[in-house]
Amino acid sequence: MNIILLGPPGAGKGTQARFLCEERDMIQLSTGDMLRDAKESGTEMGNRVAEVMARGELVTDDIVIGLIREKLEGDKKGGFIFDGFPRTLAQADALADLLAEEGETLDAVIEMRVDDEALVARITARSTCATCGEVHNDNTKPIPEDGKCAHCGGTEFKRRADDNEDSLKQRLMEYYKKTSPLIGYYYAKDQLSVVNGLGEIKDVKAEIDKVLG
Ligand code: AMP
């Protein structure tokens, strides 16, 4: 089963993708994570995209399509979760072609619907365990008092460089201008399901499980 989690930054795509990996043996393909890895390891491409990402703009379609192409050729396990990809109509068309080349299908597109104020509040308060990637939130799910990640016991936490209000506004603008048309695109293809991304994490998870069966 291959699925897309679609939604603006802070909708909870990464959090829900982690559950799907653990429970359904799926593979999370987050182009944002791949680009951050490239940036941290100082590859030429990583250096090229760093400034674009810091500004909250989208990197070029060619780069992210290339990243996804490489992964689709590898191990498929229980299927792929596309998280943060596609973000443009050109990427959506490219994904359809890549899946067809691999003899794969796209089985569901789940839009995680949230409102903008909740996003700003979530994103400016979030941090991630450097060891396991568990997402914490200063208000709703703070780092435990002993300073250890509740999921893996890790003690190092990271805040994303682009999780500040200025970058976030730009990321939202990019979402509404370039990514939100995908909602209509997948609706017209009869592939879209919508879940309420504003609920408790476990309720959102239950809605997604219902869609996936
Ligand atoms: P994310 O972790 O998904 O919020 O992505 C962080 C940043 O990486 C975005 O603000 C973009 O600069 C870049 N990025 C991630 N995925 C894509 C994509 N599919 N297309 C273009 N840029 C992307």
Structure report:
The structure is a single chain. The chain is α/β, with parallel strands linked by helices and about 210 residues long. Helix content is about 50%, strand content about 15%. The protein has nine helices and eight strands. The chain has helices at about 15-25, 30-40, 45-55, 60-70, 90-100, 115-125, 165-180, 180-190, 200-210, and strands spanning about 5, 25-30, 80-85, 110-115, 125-130, 135, 155-160, 190-195. The strands form two sheets. Strands 2-3-1-4-8 form a five-stranded parallel beta sheet, with helices on both faces. A three-stranded antiparallel beta sheet has the order 6-5-7. Helix 4 runs parallel beside helix 5 (about 90-100). The protein is globular. The N and C termini lie close together (about 10 Å). The mean pLDDT is about 95. Adenosine monophosphate binds near residues 56 and 84.
